[in-house]
Write a structure and sequence with these properties.
The protein has a single domain, classed as Amino acid/polyamine transporter I (Up-down Bundle). It has 417 residues and is mainly alpha-helical. 74% of the residues lie in helices and 0% in strands. The protein is globular and about 70 Å long.
Length: 417
């Protein structure tokens, strides 16, 4: 199967995760029908950013990956800091939380006697082994997981059409109006549009459009079957909705959706973080002799996630806040990445080039708004500064040991590894 077509699974890797489904469910309770408009704006912003980031002329000019684009505008040190802080935290914290949630779902819905943390650990081992021994089939597996997750949500949504709600719902939401917080929330499920390296922007845009329709259908189902307060306050409202639609069978379906969504999300995050190592090699940020240690990247990441799970860190409530902070770092990184691509990219006219800056500016604004509007603003700010400080320290160490020999503005090595 064509690799470009298989990259669709990466575009929607984050959209099908439980984190996104829970967020859309909460947003539906908060904004009601207004949240549907926010989802449309979120999808359009993702399409616009994707069009700028995946500009084929960037690759033609030698700027074929994140590192080169960021280096071309900000220099190698800032590029390294941005890449580390924008990519690694979301993998480590979100993967830890999602894998453990999959373990709880498996324990509560399918096999009551099986230890939830053991199941989460087995999922992690399975994903790591797949990246180590079956790397060529990663994208195929990703699409199968995506189909399984989307299929489950569509089955529940189809059955929901014929399900009568216990009480008549108003569809107005708790706030009942449009707001920046709704728009910012609605943008988060569409993160991941930058994962594939394909320059086929039409396919990526169609994938985002399909994901948007899926979220709208799920949001309408949530508003139909549950009151806004429950949607907003509960983190398992999606499971209640599934049971309201199809009883015990609905519970099995949503359980399968959660587990396959977790696998798709973590698999996508592992893939893009592994790609970072490849980019470091191909752009000269690391010696070519390091190519033999590519397998070690997956093992180190898996071990760190495993330690975070086994240490009880995953059961701490603060992990939810840390995941939000990691998402915000990812959000802001994409805004900066989009601005850098707009600056370097060639467009059909000066007017279009000016317009290309707008998606990145809007993304940066919404990312900053997510920080200041959060009840845990102080903690999220400190967490963000801490991640940036660690990333800067590591980047300075790298620059002292190896990076100082490189020019500040890099172009890729012409010879492939």
């Amino acid at each position: 199967m064509d690799k470009t077509l298989l990259s669709v699974g990466l575009v929607l890797a984050w959209l099908v995760t439980p984190e996104s489904i829970v967020l859309v469910t909460k947003g539906s309770g908060l904004g009601g029908l207004s949240f549907l408009g926010a989802l449309v704006i979120g999808g359009l912003l993702a399409v616009a950013n994707s069009a700028v980031i995946h500009n084929p002329r960037l690759a033609n000019d030698g700027y074929g990956n994140d590192l080169l684009v960021m280096t071309g505008v900000f220099g190698k040190l800032v590029a390294m800091v941005g890449l580390l802080s924008g990519r690694l935290p979301i993998l480590l914290f979100a993967a830890t939380g999602m894998l453990v949630s999959a373990g709880f779902v498996f324990n509560e819905i399918f096999v009551y006697w099986f230890p939830n943390f053991l199941f989460a650990f087995l999922l992690l081992v399975l994903l790591a082994a797949m990246h180590l021994f079956a790397n060529r089939h990663i994208l195929l597996v990703q699409n199968l997981l995506l189909l399984l997750t989307i299929g489950g949500l569509l089955i529940l949504s189809g059955l929901g059409v014929f399900t009568k709600p216990a009480t008549i719902q108003s569809y107005s939401g708790i706030n009942g109006g449009f707001s920046f917080i709704l728009i910012a929330m609605a943008c988060i499920p569409f993160l991941g549009f930058d994962f594939p390296r394909s320059a086929d922007r039409r396919l990526i845009s169609l994938s985002i459009a399909g994901g948007l329709l899926l979220l709208i259908v799920w949001s309408l189902l949530a508003m139909k079957l549950a009151d806004p307060t429950r949607l907003t306050e509960s983190s398992v409202a999606h499971r209640s909705i599934a049971r309201a639609v199809a009883g015990e069978q609905g519970g099995y379906i949503i359980g399968l959706v959660v587990i396959s969504g977790v696998l798709a999300g973590v698999n996508g995050l592992l893939h893009i973080n592994r790609q970072i190592f490849t980019d470091l090699l191909q752009t000269g940020f690391l010696p070519t002799s390091f190519s033999r240690y590519e397998w070690l990247v997956i093992i180190v990441l898996a071990v760190i996630i495993g330690i975070m799970m086994m240490s009880g860190f995953a059961g701490d409530k603060i992990l939810e806040t840390q995941i939000r902070a990691a998402v915000i770092l990812w959000f802001i990184y994409l805004g900066i990445r989009s601005l850098a691509a707009a600056h370097l990219g060639k467009f059909v006219s000066r007017f279009v080039k000016v317009l290309a800056y707008f998606p990145g500016c809007i993304t940066l604004f919404l990312g900053s708004f997510l920080v200041v509007s959060n009840l845990q603003m102080t903690y999220i700010t400190n967490f963000t500064l801490g991640v940036l400080a660690v990333s800067l320290a590591f980047s300075l160490l790298w620059n002292t040991v190896y990076g100082r020999h490189l020019p500040n503005n890099l172009l890729p090595r012409r010879k492939k590894l």
